[in-house]
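User: Can you write out an input/output pair for a complex, sequences first and structure second?

Assistant: Here is one pair. Inputs:
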Amino acid sequence: MTASLSRTGAVPALELRDLRRSFRTRDGDVVAVDGVDLVVQPGEVVALLGPNGAGKTTTLDVVLGLTSPTSGTARVLGRSPRGAVRAGLVGAVLQTGGLLPSLTVRETLLYLAACHPGLSGGRGEAADDALHRTGIAHLAGRRVSRCSGGEQQRVRFAAALLADPALVVLDEPTAGMDVHARREFWDVMHAEAAAGRTVVFATHYLEEAEAFADRTVLMAGGRVVADGPTHEVRARALGRTVAVSVPDPDAALAVVAAAVAEAGGAVLHARTDAGRLEVRVSDSDAAARAVLALPGAHDLEVRAGSLEDAFVLLTGRAEPGPEAPGTARPLPASTTAPTTAPTAAPTMEVSR
Amino acid sequence: MSTVLPSAPTADRRPARPRPLDPTLLRLELRRLLRDPTVWVFSVGLPGFLYVMLGTSQEYADTSVGDGNLAMWVMVAMAAYGGVTATVGVGGRAALERTQGWGRQLGLTPLADLTWVGTKAALACVLAALPVLLVYGLGLALGAEGTTAAWLGSLALVLAGSWLFALLGLAVGLAFSSDQAVGVASGAVVVLGFLGNVFYPLSGVLLDLARFTPMYGYVGLARYPLTQGWTSAGAGPAYHDAWWLLVANVATWTILFAVASVLLVRRGRGRQ
């Protein structure tokens, strides 16, 4: 299904301009966010993907009005971050959001519902509705102190959905959940996103970004290093590794590089061993076609690129491969909706 | 194919003006506190126990003090001690909640600071009333005597004044890290209680210093309907405190606690 996600004339759900945030520590200033530009349109589901320390949490803290930027601007649904929260438009699951251990699960939701004075309908109904939507109705009477980490995380999630928010912000939402709970969580989130909510979530799991986000923003070192449709970010920033056994790997590498360049891609990394060539490329189809055409080529293997490798390359913390011009060049960080991304990516999955 | 997604409403849902108190929040806070057995034992039970131990001795309980007897003098002090312990506890817990992640959770809601402070203040009042009423009930049953004006006047002053110490608890809770705060707060109340003439009548240099400590003014005012400011119990000569000096003591400390709390709240905002 193809969907137009950007509503023309709509106020962006999220608009960050040259956002910077540094923290003063004993060892000098630490820059957590270093010039982030990001625009999210209403209805988008966006993953902030990055390793620990990439600046994801600090960025989201600014979006939620929990911390103010050192410089740059943040607008949420056309308001200041705190203004949007005060208007009851934002729901969030925080990594460090504490719950009161002596309340029961339902009391916790009742309490937080009472913190939304503009809630339409009763607080009891809002709490019960959130319990049912997130599948934790069976925990209603249990004390928070008796809930497991994963269960507490689902209580936070129910709290985030309490007030029917337009923007849902999730910081590592599935941390502490087992595989089953994780799948259930994302099922619920799918349903909520289909109801038209804008969802921005931080994760360091590539699989979560792939399974859920239409658009992925790759962050590293406090910057946006890639931004676009998830499958494209994955293909272009992470690439795939093509490995093949050939009599002359160095000659084969030259052929592959030419073929990939012709297809509009790039070789991200290359390694030649005795009789074996391994290249990480953004267009694995072209590379595979080219190597298989070589005389004597056999044992072709195509693997998905790993996020960790990509981060190392993108943040320039490792030497680039010998035949990798433009290795550390990030994708153009698009500050518009993914539909306007300049590359050939005509379709986007909106829901599954 | 183009799909227009329904979108969640983005209009402001805030009511025009925040409420100074929310009954749902107060009910949940109260339920949560009263579920804690340590609250019943130390905050409600202990002042009553202290009154029975200190205020019902056959030897001196019936000694005349002002418009009543010594048992009543002790009763007012123990009720005040109980009220202060309760409100310091509420303030301290409130501060800890704010610094231990729950503050961030509340920061994600439109909850107005006014509503939060108002609800906690009401909680402190209710929680302080429990030990105060228990001690007064015990006094009534076990021989405290005084004029009706002394009974009602002191009760009103004990209840009204204890509330100010919620600010002390708040400041202590914000100033110290989680585990230290509880010990510091309860220790401070005992020390301030001694310096405030609560447990034992002071005299000499210690009394001169004690006049400047926070509980002195509060307890002095609470006993005013009974003694009109005179203290004749204890070893030293009788002495008199003017009501306006006691009021000045209370007012000064209230301002100091409030300023400290505001400064500490500002320091504590943001990610912990």
